[in-house]
Amino acid sequence: MIVNRYIQRNIYLGTSSALLLLISLALFFTFVGELENLGEGSYGIGRVLEYLALRVPEMVVAFLPLAVLLGSMLSLGSLASNSELIAMQASGITVQRLLGAVLQAAFLVALIGFLLSEWVVPDTEVNALKIKNLSRQNSSALDTRQGLWLKDEWKIVHVAELLPNGYARDIQIYHLDGQGGLKTIIKAESAQPLGGGWELHQVKQTSMDEGLASSQQFEYLSYPGNLSHELLQVLLVEPRQMSSRDLFSYIRFLDENRLDAEVERLIFWQKMFAPLTIVIMCLLAIPFVLGSQRQSNTGQRLLLGIFLGLSFAIVDQVLTQLGVRIGAESIAIALAPNLLFFALAVYLLAGRSGRAAGLQLFLKLLGR
């Protein structure tokens, strides 16, 4: 147990160091990119720093697989270079036990990444976009926990939930007369973009006439308002930053309205398999610190780790584009890169410890 904790502590420290470096670089380039927007509206240096701070959780989730790969290679490589791994093996620590310790560390990191993507990133990304874009536009929109309020000439629009691509749910539109009195109330279950306004679905319209109210029901109703499409877009988070719960709900909404949801469905499965990617990246580091590779220096391991990380990103993009073109199932497209690199990790580790022994080792670990 002491040896396991020692190995895991080194992996956590290596991953944290790699993550800190990657996020620092990303924040620097993001800050430089935001300088051209500085001074637009009320978007000052304070707002820029607030925007950058809110982007950190999303950067952590995005860089975590590469950080785990680099951190594992550097930390385990340091143990190998100092002959600590050899000493562990000489004292009876088997490769199987080493793999078990590494996988335990990988599972914890994967869990942290998943929780961040589910519970933290959706809120921080939405707030970051609001800070940046509403400050730049000096918009009259009011954001509250109960939804978004917009002023559209003599109409007040309340949207409980904004969805990607301009879709919305639970909309209320209050028409006012020239003296500010209430003329009409429109309530709709959902809406999809139509020009500068929306096509409302499942609508109830209540009209006020000399103190009397009358109601009408409509399946569809056009709302040709002057809503800014750009304003609505900047308040929306992309599907990749949505939680899996919200993304699943959005996919169901698209399916119910007979809209194309293939891209969103693919993103959903990629989010589901993101923890598996982290585990595989950690596992992939082990063959490169065993055998003859233990004499590699830190620079070589760093370059090798970056090369493997870039290779995974390229393979992921190629297989995704290929899968979409041939019409493969979304779950298969999302899983394919992980399976390919898992097979690579098995092959490399089997080569280090002997083909038969390596395969038996993985079978034992999978059977736990």
How would you state the average pLDDT, rounded? 85
The side-by-side strand order for the widest beta sheet comes to 1-2-3-4-5-6-7
Distance between the termini: 17 Å
CA radius of gyration: 26 Å
Total count of domains: 2
Give me the number of helical elements.
11
Number of strand segments: 7
Describe this protein's structure:
- The protein is an alpha+beta fold and 368 residues long.
- The protein folds into two domains: 2-137 and 244-366, no CATH class; 142-234, no CATH class.
- The protein is built from eleven helices and seven strands.
- The chain has a seven-stranded antiparallel β-sheet with strand order 1-2-3-4-5-6-7, with no helix packed on it.
- Helix 2 packs antiparallel against helix 4 and helix 7 packs parallel to helix 10 (330-353).
What would a concise description of this structure say?
With about 375 residues, this protein is α+β, with helices and mostly antiparallel strands. The protein has helices spanning about 1-35, 45-80, 85-90, 95-135, 230-235, 245-255, 260-270, 275-285, 300-325, 330-355, 355-365; strands spanning about 140-145, 145-150, 155-160, 170-175, 180-195, 195-210, 210-225.
Feature tags:
368 residues; alpha+beta; 7-stranded antiparallel beta sheet; 11 helices; 7 strands; 17% strand
Write the SSE topology.
Blueprint: H1 2-34, H2 45-81, H3 84-90, H4 95-137, E1 142-144, E2 147-152, E3 155-162, E4 168-176, E5 182-194, E6 197-209, E7 212-223, H5 229-234, H6 244-256, H7 262-272, H8 274-285, H9 298-326, H10 330-353, H11 355-366
Antiparallel strand pairs: 1-2, 2-3, 3-4, 4-5, 5-6, 6-7
